[in-house]
Specification:
The complex is a heterodimer of chains A (423) and B (313). Chain A has 423 residues and is α/β, with parallel strands linked by helices. Chain A is built from 14 helices and 20 strands. In chain A, strands 1, 2, 3, 4, 5, 16, 19 and 20 form an 8-stranded mixed β-sheet that branches. In chain A, a hairpin with a 6-residue loop joins strand 1 and strand 2. Chain B folds into 2 domains: 152 residues, Aspartate/ornithine carbamoyltransferase (Rossmann fold), CATH 3.40.50; 147 residues, Aspartate/ornithine carbamoyltransferase (Rossmann fold). Chain B has 13 helices and 9 strands. In chain B, helix 1 packs across helix 6. Chain B starts with 20 loop residues before the first helix and ends with a helix. The chains are: A alpha/beta (423), B alpha/beta (313). At the A-B interface, helix 6 of A face helix 3, helix 4 and helix 5 of B. Chain A: Its cofactor is Zn(2+). Chain A: Its EC number is 3.5.2.3.
Chain lengths: 423, 313
């Protein structure tokens, strides 16, 4: 079964080309028309590999009032994502191979973005007893994490890194020292003190990364093969701990989220819990340093940490409202509009496609013949305002509401099948 | 959310961000008039007749609630009280739903107390009606600061050049934050003082505000010394080694006040922990203006209600 996308440009080229897909694999470029099969017009847009989301909360099982696989994966596809890793802090927690299989089966029938499951590192994400890691891997889990919780017991994390390392699996961590974070609901600093809102110091993130890096260093030195991935870095201090670890040649990777690059704790002056997220929005100096981290290669990938909640939950006060910001549908336009020029489009694409693939140990996506046909076409020119009412996600609100952005996805193809079309 | 109202007059009193010094002085002048009303045999004026004021207290408070309710009633407003522990709200109803339900009863203004900083801002956003913040989390307690300012002004005639030392648990205090915002706008200098664990350095960046950990240095030359209430739970939080350790250094007592200006007055936002943050003899002594603060509070709150509710649509 063939599909041909016509009228698209590759990065750095002005030539309008066509790409033909056969059985989910890129067959070739600019092939004669008789082999095209079904055709889709790329409308002169730019074609890149479909984005990879290393970190999203799709809330299934058990929290489907916030999001479910159908809404979350439709939102991802509309955002240009072809592959999405969902986090296991659900209800029940994804710590059982049967849940991993059930989610994958359900997602496969939807024809949207492809689902990959991150399984819990510990049973119930309680941080006490390791989950059945090899069975979870066998079932298809792509990483282990207790995200949503912090790994307070350092010995259990050490055991997890050892065991997961032997399976060549990455352990990703929500790096915050919960005792230092305490009851903080926003960045601790000038703004939190002026507002009288309990703060979370950057030291909570940096100290936890320092601890985890030393565990990795020790394990690696004695011959283990740990792989540590630091999720959603928020602070300059945290970034510097990762930078040092990389200089030491340690197997540590990290991700940064668009909201930490583009928003600061000043947003909390509105007292709007929409901006309540963990780790919290920091200062402009932190955001600037995270951007430096993109430039100098400290940051391996971009992950949105898409964290939908119901509107009513986010309309509670700052202490009561849950942590998390949803915006997977506009993450690419946000990043493209803000950073395509400063960063270079190629670098940005790398951070949102090949970057996450390297972290996960997947082959790097490619547009060459023979590569899997996970593709995304975006319109680099047309500006449009963000209108959350049109979101596929159940969370119809977002911090970028009303902002004028460009780079909007036109087409997302997953395994040779159209998962999203702007038409 | 403190969108300016007609003629630059703020629509709400959430904090002092949008309040110009002249407006604040007008509020204090209004309190003079109200104090006069309160000294009459019949302590009631018809200014708010026909208006319904809702006191929405999501956190317990007896004193502030009584003060506001009396203030509203003495101006002939109908007063409706809504009391809910923060917990009952967390059982399902969002703050927005609660406020919209109340608004359906056609309230004309809200007086809001809540354990979360910013909650009064949210009520203003969701209700569309004038909101007076009666204390939100650690954020602000503007009428308390106004009555403090009024009490100091009563003593000295003017706040310009006056030095006010605020001593105690600054970190958790909305009273300290509101005073640090208000008093410099009226020309006073504020010194915040407390143990380093309870004295956030960032507050020193506010205009007219100095931070000092040594209480003797803090009260030197002060015209007014305010002791903040010390919550017993701060011990469990590890902020302090012991009550005694705090008392030894930070209690407002005669020995400490010897360093202040002659005739310096003593304030406390209440309720007091006698012989903890303030010694009993000072609380009852001639420097104390603590009971005066309470009666001034009613007049100040009447003035605030008048400014926000009278003379607009």
């Amino acid at each position: 079964m063939n599909l041909t996308i016509t009228n698209v440009k590759r990065l750095g080229s002005t030539e309008r080309e066509s790409v033909t897909i056969e059985d989910g694999i890129i067959k070739g470029w600019n092939l004669p028309e008789e082999g095209h099969g079904e055709t889709v017009d790329g409308q002169g847009g730019t074609i890149i590999p479909a984005l990879i989301e290393p970190h999203a909360h799709l809330r299934e099982p058990g929290q489907t009032e916030k999001e479910d696989l159908a809404s979350g994966l439709a939102a991802a596809a509309a955002g240009g994502y072809g592959n999405v890793v969902c986090m296991p802090n659900t209800s029940p927690v994804i710590d059982d191979p049967a849940i991993v299989r059930a989610l994958q089966e359900k997602a496969a029938g939807l024809g949207l973005a492809r689902l990959h499951v991150a399984a819990a590192l510990t049973q119930g994400q309680k941080g006490e007893q390791l989950a059945e890691l090899s069975a979870l891997k066998e079932a298809g889990a792509v990483m282990f994490t207790d995200d949503g919780r912090t790994n307070e017991n350092a010995r259990v994390l050490r055991l997890g890194l050892e065991y997961a390392g032997s399976l060549d699996m990455v352990v990703s961590v929500h790096a915050e020292d919960a005792t230092l974070r305490a009851d903080g609901v926003m960045n601790e600093g000038e703004v939190s003190q002026a507002l009288g809102v309990p703060g979370n110091p950057t030291a909570a993130e940096a100290a936890r990364i320092a601890r985890d890096v030393e565990i990795v260093a020790w394990l690696a030195e004695r011959g283990n093969r740990p792989r540590l991935h630091v999720q959603h870095l928020s602070s300059a201090a945290g970034l510097n701990r990762v930078r040092e670890a990389k200089r030491r040649g340690l197997p540590v990777t990290c991700e940064v989220s668009p909201h930490h690059l583009t928003l600061t704790d000043e947003k909390l002056r509105s007292f709007d819990a929409l901006y309540k997220v963990a780790p919290p929005l920091r200062t402009q100096a932190d955001a600037d340093e995270l951007f430096e981290g993109l430039l100098d290669g400290t940051v391996d990938c971009i992950g949105t940490d898409h964290a939908p909640h119901t509107q009513a939950e986010k309309e509670r006060d700052l202490l009561e409202a849950p942590f998390g910001i949803p915006y997977i549908e506009v993450a690419w336009p946000v990043m493209y509009t803000r950073f395509a020029e400063k960063l270079g489009v190629e670098k940005l694409v790398d951070l949102m496609t090949a970057g996450p693939a390297r972290v996960l140990g997947w082959p790097e996506p490619s547009l060459e013949a023979g590569a899997p046909a996970d593709l995304m076409v975006f319109d680099p020119e047309t500006e449009r305002k963000v209108n959350p009412a049109t979101f596929q996600s159940k969370a119809k609100f977002c911090p970028y509401s009303g902002e004028t952005l460009k780079g909007w996805p036109v087409l997302t193809v997953v395994g040779g099948v159209v998962a999203y079309s702007a038409e | 959310m403190t969108a300016a109202g007609i003629g630059g007059r703020p629509r709400h009193l959430l904090d002092f961000q949008d309040w110009a010094p002249e407006r604040l002085s007008a509020l204090l002048d209004g309190a003079d008039t109200m104090l006069n009303v309160l000294s009459r045999p019949v302590k009631k004026v018809p200014a708010l007749q026909g208006l319904t004021v809702c006191t929405a207290f999501f956190e317990n408070s007896t004193r502030t609630k009584v003060s506001f309710e009396l203030a509203a009633r003495r101006m002939s407003a109908d007063v409706v009280s809504f009391a809910a522990g923060a917990s009952s709200v967390s059982k399902g109803e969002s703050l927005r739903d609660t406020v919209e339900t109340l608004t359906a009863y056609q309230m004309d203004a809200y007086i809001v107390r809540h354990s979360a900083s910013g909650a009064a801002h949210l009520v203003a956003r969701y209700s569309g009606k004038p909101v007076i913040n009666a204390g939100d989390g650690r954020r602000a307690h503007p009428t308390q600061a106004l009555l403090d300012a009024y009490t100091i002004r009563q003593e000295y005639g003017d706040l310009k050049g006056k030095k006010v030392a605020i001593i105690g648990d600054v970190l958790h205090s909305r009273v300290a934050r509101s005073n640090a915002e208000l008093l410099p706008k009226l020309g006073a200098e504020v010194t915040l003082c407390g143990p380093a664990t309870l004295l956030p350095l960032e507050l020193g960046q506010m205009p007219g505000v100095t931070l000092i950990t040594d209480p003797r240095e803090a009260v030197r030359g002060a015209h007014a010394v305010m002791a903040l209430r010390l919550q017993q739970e701060r011990m469990q939080g590890g902020y302090l080694a012991s009550m005694q350790d705090y008392v030894n250094t930070y209690q407002v007592n005669e020995a400490l006040l010897a360093e202040a200006e002659d005739g310096a007055i003593v304030l406390h936002p209440g309720p007091m922990n006698r012989d903890l943050e303030i010694s009993g003899d000072v609380a009852d002594g001639e420097r104390s203006r603590i009971l005066k603060q309470v009666s001034n509070g009613q007049a100040v709150r009447m003035s605030v209600l008048y400014h926000l509710l009278v003379g607009r649509d």
